[in-house]
Amino acid sequence: MPRREFWTRRRRRNLRVVLLCVGGLLAVLALVLAWVVVDAVRARAALGQAAQGVATLQADAVAGRIDRLDAGVADLQRHTAEARDATDGPHWALVSRLPVVGPTVEAVATMAAVADGLARGPLPRLADVVELADPATFAPHDGRIDLDPLVAAAPAVAQADQAVGYAQQRVARIDRSPVLPQVSTAVADLHQQLADLRMSTATAARAAQLIPPMLGADGPRDYLVLVQNSAEPRALGGIVGTVLVLHADQGRIELTRQMPADEVGPFPTPAAELTEDEQAVFGDKVGRWMQNVTATPDFPRAAQIARAMWARETGQTVDGVLATDPAALARLLAADGPLEAGPAGGLQGADLVSYLINGVYLTETPQGADQIFADVARTAFGSLSSGAAGSAGMVDALTVAAREGRLLVWSADRTEADLLSGTVLDGGLRGVNGAQPVVGVFTHGLQMAKIGYYLDTAVDVAERETRPDGSRRLDVTVTYTSRVKAADAARLPAYVVGDDEREPGLIRLRSVVYAPAGGTVVEASENSEKIGLSPQKHDQLSRVFDDIELHPGETASVTYAIISGKRQDGGVILRTTPGPRPVKVSFEK
Fold first, then answer.
1. Whole-prediction pTM value?
2. Residues in contact with 59: Cβ distance below 8 Å, sequence separation at least 6, in sequence order
3. Nearest to residue 319, comparing CAs of 304, 332, 333, 331?
4. Residue whose C-alpha is closest to residue 429's, from 274, 299, 543
5. CA-CA distances (angstroms) from residue 277 to 281, 284, 488, 528, 538?
6. Bridging pattern class, strands 472-482 and 555-563
């Protein structure tokens, strides 16, 4: 046989062998892929049932159906275990390394592992956590809250929060760009669900760490309470009308002292050293008059200054500071029924708030009004400490007050202050929260009068543009409306409407806007006409203000064009000054 023909035949045999080997490998790979597909279908069904199980658990937890939770967790564990088993094994490990299909397979396996880890980790403790979170657990009995259950649960709650945080990080690390659209959507949904769950577990973990020591589990605590009057607006709500001192010891809370705020100081020099920004923006009054500490929108700073004032006035150094207002106190008192206040007798809810910050000044002297205000505050805290308001009603009232910015808390303990930071109770001045830009819209009354009761505020935030550097253009429109009726203004006491001789009932206010971190207010217009701005800096944030005069029944709108900082693509967070009535807020894109 000629040499050339020999080599030709040999190459053909080798080629056939190679083709047979490749064919065999492809057949094996096809079988592996088919195996993976079958398991993927099984995993998808199991994960779908697990998702339904989680929804059922959430509904039962919210409704307090504790008797159903253990069975629900057992069902969830069965489904997540099936999903994990279906996505485990050498065939999944092999296929996860292949191009194209590999990232999708790995994403499904990661989701199954995360779901199973949660089902076997923190969720079995759900029944205990829900039972512990029942408001009845923390209802005061004989003037004392039993802190022992919370102290005992604190380690488990912290572990659950850490587990959810780890799961959230694992899902966040999944690269969604190369996976199938259906799986990419599932990953995004799971990440959002875990983010929502983390908010709850983080809050629970903070509460378990904060509440016992702050209520005196480790030793007695004293807290200064600033009761604001929103009829005379300041950034955090209103001037401080009354100050109280609460004493907490082993869960027992007592009101030990109260006095009008105008009896604290004024001091010849600021009680606390003010920063250059604070002196430039607020002057020294924020550090000399207790009524004006709430002029700064940064509550931790206001609390520090108020604490220093109280120490200089009384010699007592408190362990923390709280701020609240008549609307929050009225909610606490609602469960007790109408409060005997004013010439009309029993009042509650909005009627009680209206009386405390307006009606009382129509019938009483300022000194008499202060006394009534102090009596109501004492009654509210007596109801809170005794549990007379009812556990569920008390928790609901405090929750709503915190969300509206009507309940703020600061601790002098650095660890506790760090735990409070970023929560709804914090009231700290910040321009960004993660990727979310924070816009501040605050109101400051310019009259020594209670005319702010007649002021309504609305804020509309519109997103106009996303810029190449990741910053955004926002139009923030603030609308103020006077409820003063011209016919009634002349009959109102000067203490209410002020002593402006030009027109009774004129409302003079300062509209203050803080841009997000790294951002600025580029222009503004009042009632569609451009106005000049004088930008200022406060704690590295850019702020502007516009002084407004509102005649009786008049409305004024100011639109601020704001450029946010770079890479702030999350939802806009808006902080506003709590008024006599809730601020009307709207967002549009």
1. 0.82
2. none
3. 304
4. 299
5. 6, 11, 41, 31, 5
6. antiparallel
3-state DSSP assignment of residue 243: strand
Cα gap 366→405, rounded to integer Å: 26
Q: How far apart are CA 373 and CA 547, in angstroms?
A: 30
CATH number of 430-588: 2.60.40
CB 416 within 8 A of CB 214: yes
User: Tokens 């009308």 appear where?
Assistant: 241
Residue identified by tokens 């109260």 is 258
Per-residue buried b or exposed e for 323-349, using 16+ beta carbons within 10 Å of the residue's own CB: bbbbbbbbbbbbbbeebebbeeeebbe
Is the domain defined by 221-410 classed in CATH 3.30.2310? no
Q: What is the DSSP letter of 261?
A: G
User: What is the Cα–Cα distance from 580 to 237, expressed in whole angstroms?
Assistant: 9
> What pLDDT digit, counting tens, does each position of 528-581 carry?
889 888 899 999 999 999 999 999 999 999 999 999 999 888 889 999 999 999
Delimit the domains of the chain by residue range.
3-211, 221-410, 430-588
Distance CA 359, CA 354 (A): 6
Q: CA 110, CA 105: separation in Å to the nearest integer?
A: 9
Is 268 or 166 the better-scoring residue by pLDDT?
Answer: 268
